[in-house]
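Consider the following input, taken from an annotated entry for MerR family transcriptional regulator (Micromonospora endophytica).
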Amino acid sequence: MRIGEASRVSGVSARSLRFYEDEGLIVPGRFDNGYRDYCRSTINRVLVIRSLLESGLPVRLIREVLPHLSDGPEVGTGPLDADFLAEVRSYRARLADRIAVLSAQQSALDAFLHRARQHGP
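Applying the prediction step yields:
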């Protein structure tokens, strides 16, 4: 299927599909006229990539883990490198730290708004 249909089927923009290709995350086939040809396994890979991006993993880590993932709709993993897993754990810890900071800021704003309601209009 061409890029427009692949975009519609996957729910990922054509621009994102081109980005995934530029980053080496997918390798669509090519028609004789040079147009991209997305097969079902490439669409499945796009769905995995989108899921990983939504989880917050950076493209660099996604590129590293993709060879260990199956292309089917049921994503399974093969053996993953211990260094890679340590890096994902570290990324998750940094994310948890950011969440804690944002939660504290949200609580401070809630307290401010509560006090403002008591003293104002």
